[in-house]
Amino acid sequence: VILNRPSTKGIDIQVDDLKSGGKKVVTIPMRFGGSYSIQGEESLLWIHSSNALRRADIGHPIGAHNGIWKCTTKDVMKAVGEGIVSPEEFLAVSGVSVWPKLDGTDQGIQGELELRNFEMVPERSLDDTWSSLLKQQVLLKRTNFVQSLELSKEAWSKANPDKASARSK
C-alpha cells in the first residue's frame, strides 16, 4: 500500500470528549493505497504502529518484524471505545497497489527496489517516519496541499536520514 497519499475523503469516528463529558467527532484521513482491492477483505485497511495496541493484541502483524499491524474496523472501534488509544493512532487506507512480474526480469516490488524507484524504511526509522505520516490531514483542495507534501517529504527524510539530502535533490 502507499501510505503517504491522503485523499480528499475522511472517516468520521465518534468518541467521548473527556473535557466536556459529551461526544465529539474525529476525522481520520483516508489514504489512497492503490487502485486494487483484495477480494473477501474489508474495503478499508486499518494499520497501526502503536506499542499500546500491540500490548492489547489489537490486530495482527504485517510481515516479520516491521512493527506495523493490520486491524479490522471492529478492532479500531474496540480500541477507541475502550480508551486504549485515540483514533489518530490509526492509518486508514483504501485500496492496494500491485506490481506485476512482467518478463522474468522484473520482480514485482522487489524489482522496483532494485531499480531504486522505492526504498525500504529501515526498522530503526519506523517510529519517526510513522509519526510524520500521522500528522497528515484530509487533503483539502488548496488549504493544506503544500503542507501535506511537506509532511510526505518529512516522512521520507526520517525514513533514511543518511540519504535525505541526496534524495531532496
Keywords:
globular, 169 residues, alpha+beta, 21% strand, 29% helix, 6-stranded mixed β-sheet
Can you give a write-up of this model?
With 169 residues, this protein is an alpha+beta fold. The protein has helices at 51-55, 73-81, 109-114, 126-134, 145-159, 164-168, and strands at residues 6-16, 23-32, 44-48, 60-61, 69-71, 90-94. Helix 4 (126-134) packs antiparallel against helix 5. The mean pLDDT is 81.
Topology:
Elements: E1 6-16, E2 23-32, E3 44-48, H1 51-55, E4 60-61, E5 69-71, H2 73-81, E6 90-94, H3 109-114, H4 126-134, H5 145-159, H6 164-168
Parallel strand pairs: 2-6
Antiparallel strand pairs: 1-2, 3-5, 3-6, 4-5
Would you kindly provide a brief summary of this structure?
With 169 residues, this protein is an alpha+beta fold. The chain has helices at residues 51-55, 73-81, 109-114, 126-134, 145-159, 164-168; strands spanning 6-16, 23-32, 44-48, 60-61, 69-71, 90-94.
Spell the H/E element sequence.
EEEHEEHEHHHH
In terms of DSSP E residues, the strand content is 15-25%
Strand count, sense and barrel status of the largest sheet are:
6 strands, mixed
Q: How much helix, percentage-wise, in residues?
A: 25-40%
Overall pLDDT: 81
Unreliable sequence segments: none
Protein structure class: alpha+beta
Q: Supply the number of helical segments.
A: 6
- For the termini, the CA-CA separation is 25 Å
Strand order of the largest sheet: 1-2-6-3-5-4
Number of strands: 6
The radius of gyration over CA amounts to: 17 Å
Shape: globular
